[in-house]
Amino acid sequence: MGGNRRRVAERPAATAPGTGRGSTGAPRQFYALAARQIRRELLDLARQHYGPEGIGANHDTDSGIAAEKKTAPADEPHDLDGWTRFHEQVEKLSDEQREVFDLLWYEGLTQPEAATVLNVSLKTVKRRWQDARLFLFEAMRGESPE
Questions:
Q1: What is the mean pLDDT of the chain?
Q2: Is 135:91 a contact under the CB 8 Å cutoff?
Q3: Which residue from 13, 48, 108, 134 puts its CA 20 to 30 A from 64's CA?
Q4: Which pTM was predicted?
Q5: Does residue 46 form part of some domain?
């Protein structure tokens, strides 16, 4: 009976799709993909709403009378063209800068959490965050998207 048993081979470690490696980079890949999709959705919404055929571009208003009476919340964008340029500039960041920017800006992680996800030091995250913000400031010529 013992001679007829087949030896069961150990299973290899789980692999991330297409990498052939262990899944230790899975959170990193997930966050990168999620942030990229968020950027695309925000750009598409702005173009769809305020493009030449968009409802926002062709809507007849009361010449701003209602807008003067009501102020927009502080976290609401005031200039969709500015936000569009901002998200387009984020795409131009270096891979390392964009990775940190995505985690902090789009995903809302703290710097220590981002360091853990990226498996880098907190100092590295802080440096990349500062470099990304400086790049965006210069690319936007000091203009805030708000």
A1: 73
A2: no
A3: 48
A4: 0.57
A5: yes
